[in-house]
Amino acid sequence: MDNSSGVLPVEQVKKSFYQESTNKYTGIGAWLLTKDHKRIGLMYMYAIISFFVVGAIIGLLMRLELLSPGGKLFSAQTYNSLFTLHGVIMIFLFIIPGIPAIFGNFFLPIQIGARDVAFPRLNLLSWYVYITGAILALTSLFLPGGPIDTGWTFYIPYSVRSGTNVSLALFAAFVLGFSSILTGINFVTTVHRLRGKGMTFFKMPLFVWATYATAWIQIIATPVIAITILLVIIERAFGVGIFDPALGGDPILFQHLFWIYSHPAVYIMILPAMGVVSEIIPTFSRRTIFGYKQIAYSSLAIAFIGYLVWGHHMFSSGQSDLSNMIFSLLTFLVALPSGVKIFNWVATMYKGSIDPQPPFLWVMSFIVLFSIGGLTGLVLGSLATDIHLTDTYFVVAHFHYVMFGGTGTIFIAAMHYWFPKMFGKMYNIKCANVAVVLYFIGFNMLYFPKFIMGYMGMPRRYYNYLPMYTPYQRISTYGSWILVGTIFFIIGYFVYAYYRGKKATSNPWGGVTLEWHIQSPPIMENFETLPVITHDPYDFSQLKEMKNE
Amino acid sequence: MSDHENVLDHKVHRDDVGAKMGMWLFLFTEVLLFGGMFLIYAVYRYQYPEQFHIAAMELNTNIGTLNTIILLTSSLTVALSIAALQKGNKLLSMIMLGTTIVLAVLFLVNKFFEWSTKFAHGIYPGSSILTSKPNGQILFFGLYYVMTGLHAIHVIIGMVILAFMLNFIKRNKVTTDNYVKLENSGLYWHLVDLIWIFLFPLFYLIQ
Ligand code: HEM
């Protein structure tokens, strides 16, 4: 397969799904009332990227405030609202739904050889539920009472006492959780019912495995946060006292319930990203993935152990030493299946014929950033060091490296990998290569100084700081300009490619999973005749046959 | 081609096994939702055993028992309604479904009287009588209102769903050979019943 020909024009054989409506409407109605998983995936994409941009701009504003000590730009209260909003938007509207809702929707059915998800109508409903949740969250900003200022963790007792619109924002999170559950149910059922002929569980691409494991976490963990959120709302409305020590309740119980969900939620964020990595690395190494089964099982292992580590968010909350030690031990255990994945990926590249196209470069920057995040996670997972570092910038740096450097980077990698398939156009490879480098530099400038500041004692969530931190804060703010600038640059060349880009071939990267067997962009219902699967998912000997297809 | 292959190929847009699988998964999330509440109940019961004991005496076991009987019967009628439809007896199915809805209303009426007597005695969250009681009792009644209230909301949702089903059967959208919607609604109703089966002893019986 001649890979440099990624932008050769191909005759489009059949009408793509863009040109055919699933319903009797055309134009906007064909989108808003569609039951096609690909269109729904794209609708998620437009919404999610918009929220991401809003969140990033808020991040930029916060960094601007911290450019120099003195707190001149915003008041303390405004800063509180800003980081809360930034956290809520990035977590609930961007990173949790991100990869599963967009790429899961678009590619999961294709990769298992199905025409759609199991419940197409429910799929559309989940999108509307998601949008409703987002609108509620945004309305809470503008209603009297003011934007929430509790931090995205909504810790009791402040979240009960704060006069801001906490109830509405919480309800928004509840609604978003509902959307997440429905998507999870849809994916699990799809994988069980709609795998094509010959597509056994161990022939599924690893992205499907990861999305499948994620869907289970969504189903199992989300109801717990739902009830917790409801209880806080009830507490605010009626003062029942379940979390109020004055009435006998226990505020720590809130933290337990919150993290029983929110820690597995961390895996909701990272597992799909790991799935994408397991797709990209074999494709650009032209080698079957090393340790397919271990990677698949390690997803399940992460999903399972992930349930048992929530207490490591609470080392300083006053829970017993015994529980602290157990949670600490379990936390180290999660590092094992994650390590298994990293080693398998690296082993896959070994002796492969590596073709460093943009998606692959993004994955490389992911591996570095995510490793930094993961290793600093071990620092926080140890009791002794955590006591010193908890609630400092160290934590802020750690979770940005994991979530943004990890999942966020892979989100961008997935865009680069699948863009030609989704839109049938190819972006400018040179621009993409420049963007990776800029992104990597900006990212480290923005967040690495935060590790140092955290170690020196700079607490998180402060709108002002002592002059001793000034040089680090400066670098961090300059970094934020580079990083956010790069993000706009990326969006820019994608939009350009969408309108003006060259046509992409159906298989620009030489991938072998099912989505590369069909035309770009795919036709309605994906396949003319349903495929019968005979090969292993990453069997690159297929490439020759595919060329003749 | 087998049935399942037709489903895969979108020759038929109907997959009863899949639909039921989805419903079971959804019920699982409901169980977990209430699971969170049961967990909280367990924690506080463990912390304040005597207080919970004393507070539980104030609940009216008779009303509770009556409501248990009502809900159990309604589970039976909904099952009968499905069986009737499977046998092709549309009318009987509709009657049974109607009965289920009536029983659900009865349940709620009972609940309403039970709550309003409590209110009349000044036992509700934030009331001066309740807040003057020891902490364990405040929590008991707090949990009582939250959990039975959440359950009552589920009863109402269930009623609405069943009402839709009644309408669907009438308009032949749910029929003797396409009744998976009715089956799924029945499952939901059984869940509502099941949760009550746990709530009832926890609040009314263990004293
Ligand atoms: C786009 C560039 C971004 C910038 C410039 C940025 C910057 C910041 C800053 C300055 C803070 C406040 C630190 C403090 O004062 O404690 C913060 C907090 C936070 N950020 Fe970001 N961030 C960015 C992207 C992201 C992404 C992609 C995510 C999620 C995946 C994210 C998640 C969070 C969370 C959860 C918090 C904590 C909020 C809280 O304390 O309640 N950020 N970020």
Characterize the quaternary organization of these chains.
heterodimer
- CATH first level of chain B: Mainly Alpha
Shape of chain A: globular
Number of domains of chain A: 1
General shape of chain B: elongated
The top-level CATH class of chain A is Mainly Alpha
Instruction: Give me the side-by-side strand order of the main sheet of chain A.
Output: 1-2
Quick one: biggest sheet of chain A?
2 strands, antiparallel
If classified by CATH, what would the architecture of chain A be?
Answer: Up-down Bundle
Strand content of chain B: under 5%
**SSE topology string of chain A:** HHHHHHHHHHHHHHEHHEH
SSE ordering of chain B: HHHHHHHH
How helical, in percent, are the residues of chain B? Answer: over 70%
If you average the pLDDT of chain A, what whole number results?
A: 88
Per CATH, the superfamily of chain B is Cytochrome c oxidase, subunit III, four-helix bundle
Number of separate domains of chain B: 1
Structural class of chain A: mainly alpha
Number of strands of chain A: 2
Number of strands of chain B: 0
Determine the strand fraction of chain A and express it as a percent band. under 5%
* Helicity of chain A, as a percent range: 55-70%
Provide the descriptors you would attach to this structure in a database record.
heterodimer, A: 549 residues, mainly alpha, Cytochrome C Oxidase, Chain A, two-stranded antiparallel ribbon, 2 strands, globular, disordered N terminus, B: 207 residues, 82% helix, 0% strand, binds protoporphyrin IX containing FE
Per-chain topology:
The complex is a heterodimer of chains A (549) and B (207).
Chain A: H1 28-32, H2 37-65, H3 76-95, H4 98-111, H5 120-142, H6 158-161, H7 166-193, H8 206-238, H9 251-285, H10 292-305, H11 321-349, H12 358-381, H13 383-389, H14 393-423, E1 425-426, H15 429-456, H16 470-500, E2 502-503, H17 542-548
Antiparallel strand pairs in A: 1-2
Chain B: H1 3-8, H2 16-47, H3 49-57, H4 61-86, H5 90-120, H6 128-131, H7 135-170, H8 180-205
Helix pairs in contact in B: 2-7, 2-8, 3-7, 4-5, 4-8, 5-7, 7-8
